Amino acid sequence: MQTEHRTFAADAADMHGVKEGSVDLVVTSPPYPMINMWDLLFRQLDPAVGQRLDDEDGWGAFHSMHSLLDNVWAQVASKVRDGGVVCVNIGDATRSMDGEFRLYPNHTRITTAMIELGLSPLPIVLWRKQGNKPNKFMGSGMLPPNAYVTLDHEYVLVFRKGGPRRFEAESRRSRRSSGYFWEERNIWFSDIWEGLHGTGQNLGDGLGRRRSAAFPLELAYRLVNMYSIQGDVVLDPFWGTGTVTLAAMASARNSIGFELDRTLLDRFDGIVPGVIGLTRDKNQYRVRSHRQFMEMRETKHFNPRYGPVVTAQEVDLMLHDIVSISRDRDHWLASHTPH
User: Fold this and answer.
1) pTM attached to this predicted model
2) H-helix or E-strand containing 275?
3) Of 42, 148, 220, 328, which cross-links 49 as Cys (Cβ 3.0–4.6 Å)?
4) Based on the structure, what is the number of domains in the chain?
């Protein structure tokens, strides 16, 4: 099996080269409106944002920033196929403007925009970020009533275009080979993800998270495996450090990414070779964990590669290692073999 991975040094609000209805899954994390580290980017994209920030017009700046994101969401909605899924990792923002501290609910604003574009919201995931100290507090400390809770979590918003996806005979075979183990399903499809610990997290740590805002590769890896099948096309309109492309490579999916910062695309060359070994390690970890899980369980179902499984839907499950990756400009080809 061979997968293709394309990146464009371009604004995702103008997705030339991507056909309408050609994308199966979107996994992305946009710049977070009203988070200070993204102010400069939003100012460059729209001078009105900078003026509103300078005027301490918090809500005006919030809506202006989201208007820029709306242009991308409109493109996303047109490129996703019927039955396709859109996953958006986003955090809310807290900020003092014009002498008043307030919450800016980014997840609510994006949900509203997606609904207006005709996408249907599905149950979301809350994931708790690592590194938050239990003794951290905000506001007035130990005296009521002017303290406020910390934002230790982010959201994975999930939307679908139209009804459930339908599969023809060939894609039904790919769907069965793209399954996950029963015990993985129980963890991945929980609505609260705690920390994303373990070997899966190492997949992200070892591949150069060059922006402080980059989300863990394990998060993208889960979403790619949960909401697409092998050979599908995964789009990330805010490509950043290439986390979603790496997750797609590791999962035998194709990918497309858009990134304004050309230097991030150039740095990706140094990251790509590591995904070969890390994909193999990830697959070994998944199989080893599954076999340990099955040691004390009886079942009548058997996967010819990985041994006993809990359900008949796991019988044809097949993980894929990467054997080689080649590049032609902003275009990578990954060759896969069954693990």
Assistant:
1) 0.92
2) helix 274-294
3) 42
4) 1
Q: Name residue, tokens 């017009």.
A: 57
Residue-range definition of the domain harbouring residue 120: 2-338
CATH number, domain of 258, equals: 3.40.50.150
**Size of the chain in residues:** 339
Assigned token pair, 82: 């019927």
Of residues 190, 213, 266, 165, the one with CA closest to residue 41: 213
Angle between helices 58-79 and 106-116 (to 10 degrees): 40
CA distance 36 to 61: 12
Q: Measured between alpha carbons, how far is 229 from 173 in angstroms, rounded to an integer?
A: 10
Q: What are phi and psi of 294, to 5 degrees?
A: -85, -5
Q: Which two tokens stand for residue 229?
A: 């099948």
Per-residue model confidence as pLDDT tens digits over 188-231? 999 999 877 434 444 444 443 344 456 789 999 999 999 999 99
Place of tokens 């996408």: 119
3-state percent breakdown (helix, strand, coil) of the chain, nearest 5: 35, 25, 35
